[in-house]
Sequence to fold (87 residues):
Amino acid sequence: MKTNHVGTKPLPKWFDGQHYSDGATVTNPFSGESFYLDRTELSMYDFIMGCSMTFDVHQDPQLIEDFDKARDWFIKANSKAYMVLLD
Fold:
């Protein structure tokens, strides 16, 4: 399992997803690689994954914009985890 980092980057004001109080280890289902995410990274990761699942059913322009902002946030917050889990 790969680990993280220096600190927690705050969630942006536009974020309206679930705010977790604890972090957790997440595993990429395709590569099997795991990475520990702090509480804010985990909140954003779950938001990104939820958006991805929603896109299969509904293509809401605001959701697409928020998805793009979420990915940008995650890359800046923890680029190593992004590469392991989402790239």
